[in-house]
Write a structure and sequence with these properties.
The chain contains twelve helices and no strands. By secondary structure, the chain is mainly alpha-helical. Helix 8 (144-155) packs across helix 10 (169-189).
Length: 252
C-alpha cells in the first residue's frame, strides 16, 4: 500500500504542478514571475520525487544510490557522444536528401537558461525515481521504460497547451518511447548513475536547437525530427542486439 501511495502521490504532484503554473501564468502579468513559474512546471517531476522521498524520510538514502562517483566519467561522455552523433547525423542526412546547406540554429539567453535548468529539472523524477519504483512492481522489466516513456509524453501536456512543442503528438509519443529506452540503457551501463540521464537530457535539449532539428529552428520542417527518431530507433536496436550478444557470449 505504501508503494502504491508513493506512486499515486508522485504522479499527482508531477501533473498538477504544471497545471497550476500554467493557469497562474495566464493571470499574473509579471514576466519574471511567469518565467520562474515556467521553471517550476518544468521541474515538477524532480519536485514531486523530492516531496515523496521527504515524506518517507528516504532523501539521503535514495540520492546516495542514484548519484555515484562510479562510472561518472562515462555517465557524462557516453550520453554526450550519443546525442551529438544522432543530432548531427540527422541534420546531415536531411541536408543531403533535400539539397539544403548545413546550417546551425541559434538559442536565446532565456532558452539557454531553460536548457541548463533541464539538467536537474526532470530526470531525478523520471529515471531517478519513477523508473526504479516501477521496477519493484510485478511487471516485465523490458516494459518499464515504455511505461515511463508514455507517462513522460503525457506529462508534456502543459507545453502543448502553451504551444511550446511544434512536433505532431503521434510523432512526439513515438520519440518519447524510443528515447525512454535510450535513457534506460544509459542508466544500466553506468550502474544506475542518474548523471547519465541528466547529461543526455541536457545535451538533447541543447543540440535539438543548435543542430536546428526542432521545426521552429528550420522554417517549420518536421523532417529533421523524423530522421532523428529513425536514427534513435536504429541506435536502440543496435543496443538490444549488442546486449543479447554479450548475454549469449557469457552463457557460452
Amino acid at each position: 500500500m505504501r508503494k502504491h501511495k508513493n506512486l499515486i502521490l508522485f504522479l499527482l504532484i508531477s501533473f498538477l504542478i504544471p497545471l497550476v503554473a500554467v493557469v497562474s501564468q495566464t493571470i499574473i502579468p509579471n514576466d519574471f514571475i511567469c518565467f520562474v513559474l515556467y521553471g517550476i512546471q518544468a521541474a515538477s517531476p524532480t519536485i514531486s520525487a523530492v516531496v515523496v522521498l521527504c515524506l518517507n524520510k528516504e532523501v539521503k538514502t535514495h540520492f546516495t544510490q542514484i548519484f555515484r562517483k562510479e562510472s561518472l566519467l562515462i555517465a557524462v561522455i557516453l550520453p554526450t557522444i550519443i546525442a551529438c552523433t544522432t543530432m548531427i547525423l540527422a541534420k546531415m542526412i536531411y541536408c543531403v536528401l533535400f539539397g539544403i546547406d548545413f546550417m546551425l540554429g541559434n538559442i536565446s539567453t532565456a532558452q539557454f537558461i531553460i536548457i541548463l535548468w533541464a539538467f536537474v529539472a526532470e530526470e531525478i523524477g523520471w529515471r531517478g525515481y519513477l523508473e526504479p519504483l516501477l521496477k519493484t512492481y510485478n511487471i516485465p522489466k523490458q516494459t518499464v521504460p515504455c511505461i515511463v516513456g508514455m507517462i513522460w509524453c503525457l506529462w508534456h501536456y502543459h507545453f502543448f497547451l502553451q504551444n511550446g512543442i511544434e512536433i505532431p503528438i503521434p510523432l512526439f509519443f513515438i520519440s518519447c518511447i524510443v528515447e525512454s529506452y535510450i535513457y534506460s540503457f544509459l542508466m544500466s551501463v553506468t550502474g544506475d548513475n542518474i548523471v547519465s540521464a541528466m547529461t543526455y537530457h541536457l545535451m538533447w535539449n541543447l543540440l535539438v536547437h543548435i543542430a536546428a532539428i526542432n521545426p521552429a529552428d528550420n522554417n517549420g520542417s518536421i523532417f529533421p525530427y523524423i530522421i532523428l527518431v529513425v536514427l534513435e530507433a536504429m541506435l536502440l536496436a543496435a543496443f538490444i542486439v549488442l546486449k543479447r550478444y554479450k548475454k549469449s557470449s557469457k552463457n557460452t
